Amino acid sequence: MEKTGRIGSALVTGGSRGIGRAIALRLARTGRAVAINYRDSADLADDVASIIRAAGGTALTLQADVSDPESASALVCRAEEALGPLDVVVSNAGITRDRLLIQMSEADWSATWMTDLVGARALCRRALSAMSARGHGSIIAVSSVVGTTGNPGQANYAAAKAGLQGLSRQLAVEAAPSGVTVNCVVPGFFPTDAVAHLTPEQRDAWIGRVPMGREGPVDDIAELVAFLSGDGARYITGQCIAVDGGYQASLGFGFGS
Ligand code: NAP
Question: 210: domain range?
Answer without folding.
Answer: 9-242
